[in-house]
Amino acid sequence: MARKLFGTDGIRGTANTLPMTAEIAMKVGMAAGVAFRRGNHRHRAVIGKDTRRSGYMIENALVAGFTASGMDVFQLGPVPTPAVAMLTRSLRADIGVMISASHNPYEDNGIKLFGPDGYKLSDQIEQRIEMLIDRDLSRQLASSRAIGRATRVDGVRDRYIEFAKRTLPRDLSLEGLRVVVDCANGAAYKVAPEALWELGAEVIAIGNEPDGYNINLDCGSTDTAALRRKVHETRADIGVALDGDADRVIVVDENAEVIDGDQIMAVISEYWQQTARLAGGGVVATVMSNLGFERFLKSRGLVLERTQVGDRYVVEHMRSKGFNVGGEQSGHVVLSDFSTTGDGLVAALQVLSVVRTANRSVSEICRKFDPVPQILKNVRYTGGAPLEHKNVVAAIDHGRDRLGKEGRLVIRASGTEPMIRIMAQGDDETLIASVVDEIAGAVAKIAA
């Protein structure tokens, strides 16, 4: 059954327009509350959010829905997505919610749901919640006496900071390292600088003054220009860029050169292999990861197993196959020894741990492979299914033939916005550019 609300990472859209309205959010709370009401114990939901102004509206609507279903609600305030996943488990909640549109601008918002184990929900559970949203739930809601109550939880940030610090060896100190951290004016604007400072680093924080509207604005993991300038200006050892909900990270070395998620996973997987901590014999990544990364792992006797785009699918594959390192080129890095979802701060700390242990510069540590040329082009559309049109199908087939076995071509519809993403990679940059342009042109003609 096709899903109407849920995409690759929960429900997402422009705030105060369908599907990201207060009405829908309240129905999601009711439906999810009914779906996760199991047994006779007092049921709990935890809700975290990033710093978007619309978070207040969506949070209150979700609280109304959950309490109407009979669940008590613990409101965490602005915290990273991985903190919500962690606290869902530690508070023994039945369901966790993160209100965030991740790296999107402030106009957008979203709802991510976690089960009691701290993992994002499966497609099947999301479909069940959608079915419940469409039904009349009046007879399944709580009685007047059983309505839930809402409570704001104190000390959440401190708990997450301690959790993040404990992912490092107890005797490891970051003293002597100058770290610029870009918090994207988002959920980690307090916890990331504080955690790095408590570990001994000299911390220079930017993107740490959220006003409800500046989240991801000219900052964060999707726009590293400000971070690169600050690293150069302050002669820092490393720059760390998080996104709006801090579940992804991009690193900048001392030369202000960007290090993406593939390179970060290469650093961690190699070090964990050397220290006999790597499980599964390799790494799980998506179809978007660079061929250079795959070749690097192969040279180490490791495998790269690919999934469709979305860290949820990476995690599902990691769990089923026994891997403990996975992620996406965009900076979602999942280290299942510590977290059930991507955690930008924890991934950055693992890189810093390798830098400190090896006593070498970030540029030396984090350049594990030369990426092959890779081109990504996005084509926006207004309706229909461009990828099903015969001219687009023909252009895609022609592109695959031209690339042959030495190249890779990935074309997909975005799960969060009306856009076709076209990616090609291979050793011949002129060829892949031509292939991408040809397919993009075919899609543009249909989308016009």
Task: Please characterize this protein's 3D structure.
- Helix 8 packs across helix 11 and helix 13 runs antiparallel to helix 14.
- The chain is of the alpha/beta class and 448 residues long.
- The two termini are 29 Å apart.
- The model has no long low-confidence stretch (mean pLDDT 95).
- The longest helix has 19 residues.
- The chain has 14 helices and 19 strands.
- Helices cover 37% and strands 21% of the residues.
- It has three domains: 149 residues, Alpha-D-Glucose-1,6-Bisphosphate, Chain A, domain 3, CATH 3.40.120; 208 residues, Alpha-D-Glucose-1,6-Bisphosphate, subunit A, domain 3 (Alpha-D-Glucose-1,6-Bisphosphate, Chain A, domain 3); 74 residues, TATA-Binding Protein, CATH 3.30.310.50.
- Helix 9 links the parallel strand 13 and strand 14.
- It is globular and about 65 Å long.
- The strands form five sheets. Strands 1-2-6-5-3-4-7 form a seven-stranded mixed beta sheet, sandwiched between helices. Strands 9-8-10-11-12 form a five-stranded mixed beta sheet, with helices on both faces. Strands 17-19-18 form a three-stranded antiparallel beta sheet, covered by helices on one side.
